[in-house]
Amino acid sequence: MDLNALFSKSLTTPLVPGTSTKTWKNKHISTKPDTTVLVAVALQDHIIRNLRLQNLSLSEGFKTKPQTKMGCSRPIDRSTVKPVVDTGIKRKEGRKKRKEDEEKEYVLDPKPSGLTLAQKLGLIDAPKALLTDSEWQLVKKRSVQQGDSAQPCAICREEFGMQEQVLLSCSHVFHRICMQAFEKFSGRKSCPMCRKEQYQTMVIHDGARLYKIKCATRIQAQWRGYIVRKWYKELRRTVPPKDRKLRRRFYEDKLQEINDRLVRSCDVDIEKLFSEIDQSVATNRRVLQQLERRHVHLISEEEWEQIQLKAILREVFDCPICITPLDHFRSTTCHETAERRENCGPSVRQTVLLSCSHTFHYTCLKAFEDFSEGEKHICPLCRSTYEKKML
Predict the structure, then answer these.
(1) N or C: lower Cβ tally within 10 Å for the chain?
(2) Contacts of 265 (CB under 8 A, 6+ apart)
(3) Are 140 and 204 in contact (CB under 8 A)?
């Protein structure tokens, strides 16, 4: 930069607030004409230092490797290098220290550098002093009243969460990494919200504390909701409601639950159950048959003659099953002569007399017994058990 141009520019603008250009010229040029070069150099030095350093709080400084006289990196002496055994003790200690420092708040602004020549001469205002602890408390109080920590970051528009946040001296709060990126890419120290320059920064954890409280509240709400739902289900399961429909459904569910419990406790092998039932029925039938055989009444010949006489008196000469004439009664009604036997026809089927005085063809009664169910046979006409005799 040309010193003459810089000097001419500095003469056109008043460098000290409250003084005009003419007054500044009369003061610094007319009375002290020999300080012109000194003023120009001081201004140039101040501008260069501001362009290089910027006095940023979060930007990383320029790191250069140590170099030798030839411009190469310094060689490493391997004899002095010692192997390091990682036992994990230092790592645990480091973790403990980090946990202790999680809630610690500290100021990020570096120590103010010495005043430049222009600031010493009064050409440029000196930088403001660092804020004290009481002043930082007032700034933080104003930020809490505004609710900046409860709102998302103004740069990335996300919640602060557990990430570090920085508080500016203008009481605005941002993510530390967001503010660091803003200073790096903008190249100047200006608040993204109020555009205040040459601010001071401080690391705080209000957003993390609010996030923990919010998470704890959500966990408690979920747990309380679970407890209340569980209590309500138990209440609905044990106490019947007053509504008629709900009460009916309540008892239906209770009955279904009892039924399901009984079904689960029973054996579901149906084939085995039916086989046991068949065995018990067969045993009972055998016992009953034995009892019937002991108490059965044997019909004598005289009783059979009376039964046969009763059947004749009924004058039924046809078989009730096949509706054809009975051979026994046909032979008794016809004469015993050979001529009339030939006219009546030959005797083909035998006749059977039942104890109920009904007569049938033996083949017809046999077919009826074969098609009937059960071991006991009943008469096709009077539905009573019988004893039979061949005629």
Answers:
(1) N
(2) none
(3) yes
